[in-house]
Protein: Ferrochelatase
Amino acid sequence: MSQAVGFGVASPMKLSTSASRHMSVKFNGLSRSFVCVSSQSESQDIEKSRSLSFSPLDNKTNAVRSSQSFLCNPVEKRGAVGDRIYAAGTVAYDTFSGTAAESQSNTAEEKIGVLLLNLGGPDTLNDVQPFLYNLFADPDIIRLPRLFRFLQRPLAQLISTLRAPKSKEGYASIGGGSPLRKITDEQAESLKLALEEKEVPVNVYVGMRYWYPFTEEAVEQIKKDKITKLVVLPLYPQFSISTTGSSVRVLQNMFREDPYLSRMPVSIIKSWYQREGYIQSMADLIEKELETFTNPDEVMIFFSAHGVPVSYVTDAGDPYKDQMEECIHLIMQELKRRGVANDHTLAYQSRVGPVQWLQPYTDKVLVELGERGVKSLLAVPVSFVSEHIETLEEIDMEYRELALESGIENWGRVPALNCTPSFISDLADAVIEALPSATAMNTTPMNSSVEDDSDQDPITYVFKFLLGSVLAFLLLLSPKMVKALKGNLL
Ligand SMILES: C=CC1=C(C)c2cc3[nH]c(cc4nc(cc5[nH]c(cc1n2)c(C)c5CCC(=O)O)C(CCC(=O)O)=C4C)c(C)c3C=C
Ligand SMILES: [Fe+2]
Structure:
C-alpha cells in the first residue's frame, strides 16, 4: 500500500477490503456519462496573487511547446481529451456510507477527482528565470531561519537571475524547454484511462508547483467541476519536504480558507515507493536495459537520486533519505528474486548552492568507480518518474561524459517510467485504495514549519522587499556567497 496522510490511514487489509466494497456498491451496473471539460482556465487572478511584482510571468495555459516526444503508451484511447483536464465521469449511485466529515459526499452524485502534483518546468527558454524565481521563492526549497524569511523573495530574484544563464544552457541542450508538462499530461491521460478500465471514472487534474498549470489553477478547476471527493497523488515516489511537502503546503493554505474545499473529503498519497507495482515496473526496466550490455552480469547498477541538503534530513526530519534507501533495497530484492545479482550503488545528484547535500555525490562516485576498474555501468534515475532536465542533460550528457573519461567503457541508462502501462495501472490501484480513507483535509502543516505570509499589508511587504534586496546584495558580496557562485550555483 501507499502512505495516505492526515486522513486516518487505514491498515492494508482494511484498505483493500473497503476499496472493493466501495466499487461494487457505487459503480456496479449503473450508467455513466462522460463529459469533456474545457481546459483553458483562468490563471490570471492566481498569477497576480502569486508573483506580485517580482516575477513578470506571462499568462499561458496553452499546450506544451516542447518539440520532443516522450511517447506514452496508454493501453487504449477513448473520448476527447482536453489540454489539462480530462474527461469527467459522473456516477450515480444509491448509497454512500460517509462520515460527518464527508458531508459533501452524502448526495446522490459523486464526482471523483485525482490531482497529480508535480514540479513543473519551463516550457521555453524565456520561462527559465521566472520558473527559477518561483522555485527559489519557495520556503521549502530555501529554508531561511524565521527571522530572515523576509529575504526570501529578494534572494530568489537574485539567485534566479544569476542561475538563469546556466539553466538556460541546459534546457537549450534538451530542445529549448522542459518535457515535464507534456509527459505529466500524458500520464494524467493514461491514468484516467486505466481508472476507467477499472470502472472508476474520474477527472484527472495536473497541478505544478513552479510552472504552468499551477496547483492553484487545478484547484480552481476542481471547485468549478464540483468534485466531491479528491485523491491527491504527488508524482514523487519518495516523500521530501522540498517536493511533496511543498506542494501539500500550497494545498493546505488554499483548503484552510475555503468553505467548499475545507469540507471536501481528500486523501493524500504521501509516498508510494514501496508499492509492489512500482518496484516491479522499475525492476522490469532495469532487467530490460541490462540485456543490452554484452556481459550483463558485470554491469554495476548505479542508482542516481536527486539530492537534498543534509540539513533537511538531520534538522528538519525529512524522511527522503531513508525512503530512498529502502526503495533501492526493495528494487534490488525484487531483482535478486528474478536471479539478477549485480552489484549496485546509490549516489545523489543535482546539488545547488554552498551547503552540504546528501552524499555520496554522483559525479565523485562515477570517477571513483572508474578508478576502481568498473567497466560497465547502468545509471538508474530513481527519484522522479518522468524524463526531465536532470535525466536528459545531467545524466545522459554530463555524467556519461564524465564516466567515459574516468575509464568506464560501457554506459547505459534506464529510461524514466513515464507512461509504462504496469506503472500507470499500479498508480490507478493506489488511487482506488486511497478513496475510502478520504476525509476533510487536515490543514496543519506536515513536515514543514513554513507559515503563510501572503496576507501581510502592502507597506510592510514593500519595506521588507527593499530591506531584503539590500541585504541580499550584501550577502552576494560575502566570501561564502562568492564561493557558491563559483561552484554549483552558476
Ligand atoms: C525528488 C525530486 C526532487 C527533489 C528532492 C528536488 C529538490 C531540490 N531541487 C532544487 C533545485 C532545482 N531543481 C531543479 C529542477 C528539478 N528538480 C526536480 C526534482 C527534485 N528537486 C526536477 C524533476 C527538476 C527538473 C524540472 C525540469 O524542468 O525538467 C532546478 C532547475 C534546473 C536547474 O537549474 O538545474 C533547480 C535549481 C533544490 C534546491 C532542491 C532541494 C532543496
Ligand atoms: Fe530539483
